[in-house]
Amino acid sequence: MVACSPVSATSATCPSNIYGIAWVDVVAGSAAGTSSYVAVKYQGVLQSVMQFYIRPIPTITAGGIVDAAQGKTTVAPGSYVAIYGTGLSDSYIQETTPSLPMSLSGVTVSFDVPSAGISVPGRMIYVSPSQVNVQVPWELVGQTSAQVKVTLYESEYGGVVTVPIINTAPAFFEYSVGSSKSVAATAGNYYTFLTSSTPAQKGQKISLYANGLGPVQNQPADGDPASTSSTTPSPSVNTVTVTIGGQSAAVTYAGLHPGNAGLYRIDVTVPSGVSSGAQTVVLTENGQTATSTLFIQ
Fold first, then answer.
1. Could you check whether 59-164 and 171-296 share the same CATH topology?
2. Burial (Cβ within 10 Å: 0-12, 13-18, ≥19) of residue 142
3. pLDDT of res. 216
4. pLDDT at position 233, please?
5. Which one of 1.10.20.10, 2.60.40.10, 3.40.605.10, 1.25.40.20 gives the CATH number of domain 59-164?
6. What integer pLDDT is reported at residue 258 of this predicted model?
7. Half-sphere exposure of 84 toward its Cβ, with a 13 Å CA cutoff?
8. Residue percentage of the chain with pLDDT more than 70
């Protein structure tokens, strides 16, 4: 094949081979977000025009890997992290299946611990240009840090970011109440969230939802939901305690919520002597704590 001439230019003549086939390598510009055009002529007649979008390299913001519940900078295996940055995806997609995929809209996230010979993918639940949510692989239990990288289409990736790992890093999932936040909690059928207008009752059994409680019994595979069978629950390995309004709340279950991947549930009974109104709820596990607000009637 005869090379194009000139070698580097905004236009070039590329001779075809004996089969009438010619090709040229096109180098994109350096300004992300702009469009490049390639016009093809044959014997001086315009044949086609192709447009290319110059996408940015997927880049994780400094300090941009945090737990997906309350934004803690230390994360636990088996739970969700939010990765913030630029150019992380070309789409906005939320995964809706019970089992989470290794790739979502061409986005993958790798977790590597070279010293331990660990290189595993995270399981994807949400992607967008500025945020990716992913489940941290269970294989990282016992590690102190991991190297994280976002890759697009199996070929485009930016820098590697090191994130601190700890076996238990509890954090409450919350919802916004005006300018403040309240713990995600339900009563009864797990479908009615407790709010300031539907507060928890004293002496009532409620469920609190959390991230980062770490190792569990009957651990599911990465990305797989916890078993829905009553004979194989996935309770936390470590003891979990809860206080509401400064009073101890009896914990009857703390572990993965059946049918969900990476979502933890803590079943507690609201102390009968707690005061009404917005009360502080504190979860403690293995010396680590999570704090939020719960409305009591």
1. yes
2. exposed
3. 97
4. 95
5. 2.60.40.10
6. 95
7. 10
8. 93
